[in-house]
Design brief:
Layout (H helix, E strand, L loop, with lengths): L24 H5 L4 H7 L10 E4 L2 E5 L19 H7 L8 E2 L6 H7 L10 E2 L4 E4 L2 H14 L5 H23 L12 E6 L4 E6 L6 H8 L6 H12 L3 H4 L17 E9 L7 E6 L4 E8 L4 E8 L9 H11 L7 E3 L2 E2 L16 H12 L5 E9 L5 E8 L5 H5 L7 E5 L2 E4 L14 E5 L15 H25 L1 H21 L3 H8 L4 E3 L7 E2 L1 H6 L7 E6 L3 H5 L2 H8 L5 E3 L4 H8 L1 E2 L2 E5 L23 H15 L5 E4 L8 E4 L3 H9 L7 H8 L2 E4 L4 H12 L1 H19 L9 H12 L3
Parallel strand pairs: 6-12, 16-18, 21-22, 21-24, 25-27
Antiparallel strand pairs: 1-2, 2-3, 4-10, 5-10, 6-7, 7-11, 8-9, 8-11, 9-10, 12-13, 14-15, 15-18, 16-17, 19-20, 19-22, 23-24, 26-27
Main location: mitochondrion
Subcellular location: Mitochondrion inner membrane; Mitochondrion matrix
GO cellular component, one term: mitochondrial inner membrane
Length: 749
């Protein structure tokens, strides 16, 4: 043994942590060379089974049908299936496992349930059959071009197996005696890295010789589609039809994407049916022969190409099944272990699903650890067949979550329980990307590969139905628990605003607008109201919904723009988020009522009369005209027009422009970096002055007695009005003027 070259198997298995009936485990695990280990081989005394150790690792014999471990003497003889055993959770095809997993692993092995056995044997000589020329061309397309990802062959085979089980289930109910009662309806998968094979076996209807030739010998001939046609002709219930997945007749041929040889062992459910073996390499012909030892149903063995050996690994197949077929309506076993243990809750009656089931399913679906804030279980059969389950997370989304647009669909799209798209971005609009869930519909139009959606009009219809239902659900929740909905809106209000801005459908905009919440001048600070509630409190004859954008309630209530409506006791919605302006500008109307910013110049639509208080000291019309002429000269191109306003009470002046909210947005975006002259030209601001305010009364006198100081005051009054209007982004430009005004004021004392 000393001549044996060293061989490191550390990538294949973990160091031994237990060797049965002997205390030398730690010493063996510390050896670093085969030669050293060989000298210690004779020290090992193992009861119950033989053990081979290399470089501190051990494997144990657990399957009597494989090679005996005692024949393994050198690292070169150490089989590749040791790696398979470590990587793929004690595959039944290898018969080896690490002793560190005993004895608990032995109990687990005893619980494995696997019907895949090598009992089939071809009897006699097979008959050669050739594919038709058209079929051969289509086969080449399916194998090379149809599917975008090779892994979908697993999905296709599972879907076919599920159909076979559903057919048998239906036949046993309608015809009786169609199935062997002691054989459960199951799908079994097997991986064998040593042989390089992937196996799938079902206990379904199986195939007769005629069905084999008809369905496997002709591409695009769907047995499932024929079965559905027969049900339709017989006027049978749609229960069985709704569970049938296949429709194109090409899924089976996806095996040739990954396999250089495919064997199909099948026996029909019909009494006294013989078994058959169908074999093909996909090159142009297939062989059909009778076989014995074939169980009822169908078993497909895919002999994998060298570059596709990942499909002989248990972990890879488990991931694929979990991704695509986790909710197929029948048990799926992989190397004897049940895979699909999570139930398809969206297919159940909502009344039969518990809170615990919802919580578990949400965490599985969203890969989350919290509980859902809201859940919506929605099912309908008209006008479209839809089974859906939606969740809204409890956690607050991050700024990164809100800013991302692509690849964020939180809804998985299924058709008859089979995954079509893990993140279906077309089923819900982008603004609902925070919703997690599942949509399953038999009406979803799929292309041949079942990977892409067709018929955009139907998809738009499904999206519209689901969007309206989610919006209605949120409205119901707002009425049911206002405080809980308030917390939701604080966290997810950004998405609702995005929905109004992004959609072009006015009805949809108004539906979403019902979900918006604002503070109101008629309510205490901190209390939120909806637009519908505002409308119920409107004064008789009022045709506008008034809103005002300000950074805070204090600034809103002390703003010159709010004074006139406050005087008339007209309710105003306060918007504290800067994008609220854009949202309400985009909304424009709500139930025939106009949404109007109180910053707009006139309130003519509601005939709010401007009255003069004769008790106040005010400038005469001639003095007011003289002051305005002087201010036009002092301010120059900064102002387009100056006029006297009686709407002001506690403020000396205010600035008005057409569509103030839009103007602010353009200044921050399109006019960012533009010259001051360009900005004034765009704004065309009007300065409204309060002719009874003390500043204006004094300024009228100061323009003659101290023109320089009057100019400083006029400019400051104007800039103050611009600040109040939110039209100055950086007020630091006023600092020099303010300092000069302070200096001149203090010089008098």
């Amino acid at each position: 043994m000393s001549s044996v070259p060293p061989c490191d198997f550390s990538e294949y298995c973990s160091p031994v942590t237990q060797i049965q009936s002997h205390p030398v485990t730690n010493m063996a695990a510390s050896m670093s060379s085969v030669a050293r280990l060989a000298r210690l081989r004779s020290c090992f005394t193992v009861s119950t089974r033989a053990v081979s150790c290399f470089n501190g690792h051990a494997v144990s014999r657990v399957n009597s049908t494989a090679v005996n471990c005692r024949t393994v003497r050198t690292p070169q003889q150490f089989p590749e299936y040791l790696r398979l055993r470590h990587l793929h959770s004690r595959s039944l095809h290898t018969g080896y496992r690490l002793l560190s997993e005993s004895p608990a692993a032995e109990a687990e092995e005893a619980d494995l349930h696997n019907i895949i056995k090598d009992t089939e044997k071809v009897t006699g000589s097979g008959e050669q059959h050739s594919f038709q020329a058209e079929t051969l061309k289509l086969l080449d397309i399916v194998a090379k071009s149809l599917y975008s990802d090779k892994e979908v062959f697993v999905r296709e085979l599972i879907s076919n197996a599920s159909d076979a089980l559903e057919k048998l289930r239906y036949l046993s109910l309608t015809q009786g005696g169609a199935r062997e009662v002691d054989v459960p309806l199951e799908i079994h998968l097997g991986t064998d890295l040593v042989q390089g094979t992937f196996t799938i076996q079902d206990t379904g209807v199986g195939l007769t010789q005629e069905e084999i030739i008809e369905n496997l010998g002709t591409i695009a001939r769907s047995g499932s589609r024929a079965f559905l046609s027969e049900l339709d002709n017989q006027g049978q219930s749609s229960t069985a039809a709704s569970s049938i997945i296949g429709q194109f007749g090409v899924g089976f041929y996806s095996t040739f994407m990954v396999g250089n040889k495919v064997q199909v062992f099948t026996r029909s459910h019909q009494p006294d049916s013989p078994g058959y073996c169908w074999t093909s390499d996909g090159s142009g012909s297939y062989e059909l022969a009778e076989a014995e030892g074939v169980q009822r149903g169908t078993k497909i063995v895919v002999h994998l190409k060298k570059e596709c050996m990942q499909f002989a690994r248990e972990d890879d197949i488990k991931e694929i099944v979990t991704k695509y077929s986790n909710f197929v309506n029948c048990p799926i076993y992989l190397n004897g272990k049940r895979l699909n243990t999570v139930e398809a809750l969206w297919m159940l009656d909502a009344k039969n699903v518990t809170d615990e089931q919802h919580e578990e399913f949400y965490r599985f679906l969203a890969n989350a650890y919290d509980s859902p804030r809201y859940r919506l279980h929605y099912q309908t059969d008209a006008p479209l067949n839809i089974r859906s389950l939606f969740y809204i997370p409890a956690h607050k989304p991050t700024m990164w979550d809100m800013s991302r647009q692509e690849g964020l669909g939180g809804v998985a799209l299924y058709s008859r329980r089979v995954l079509i798209q893990p993140k279906a971005e077309t089923i819900l609009p982008k603004w609902l990307r925070f919703v997690k869930g599942v949509v399953d519909s038999e009406d979803i139009p799929l292309n041949l590969s079942r990977e892409l959606l067709q018929d955009s009009a139907l998809i738009r219809k499904i999206r519209s139905v689901l969007t309206n239902r989610i919006v209605k659900f949120l409205g119901d929740q707002a009425r049911r628990d206002a405080e809980k909905y308030r917390r939701f809106f604080e966290d997810y209000g950004f998405y609702l605003r995005e929905g109004i801005v992004s959609t072009e459908d006015q009805d949809e905009r108004e539906s979403i607008a019902k979900l918006l919440r604002f503070e109101s001048s008629a309510e205490a600070e901190g209390t939120l109201v909806g637009i519908e509630e505002y409308c119920k409190r409107m004064r008789p004859g009022q045709r506008n919904i008034y809103y005002f954008s300000a950074p805070s309630r204090q600034l809103a209530e002390t703003s010159p723009y709010y004074e006139a409506l406050k005087k008339k006791d007209i309710e105003v919605l306060f918007c504290y988020e800067q994008y609220d302006e854009l949202v309400l500008l985009q909304l424009r109307q709500f139930k025939t009522l106009n949404l109007k910013s109180i910053e707009n110049e006139v309130l003519e639509s509601d005939k709010v009369e401007e009255t003069q208080d004769d008790s106040k000291v005010t400038l005469s019309p001639s003095k007011a005209d003289a002051l305005m002429d002087w201010m036009r000269s002092a301010l120059g191109e900064k102002v387009t027009n100056i006029k006297v306003s009686t709407r002001l009470e506690s403020h000396p002046a205010m600035v008005t422009v057409m569509e103030m909210g839009a103007a602010r947005h353009y200044l921050r975006t399109a006019f960012a970096g533009q010259s001051e002259a360009e900005r004034w030209k765009f704004l065309q601001p009007t300065l409204e002055i309060n002719s009874s305010h003390p500043i204006m009364l004094k300024l009228s006198e100061l323009k003659s007695s101290d023109p320089e100081l009057a100019r400083l005051v006029a400019e400051q009054v104007y800039d103050n009005a611009l600040v109040a209007a939110g039209l100055i982004e950086d007020p630091r430009s006023m600092l020099n003027r303010l300092n000069e005004l302070l200096t001149r004021t203090l010089d008098k004392y």
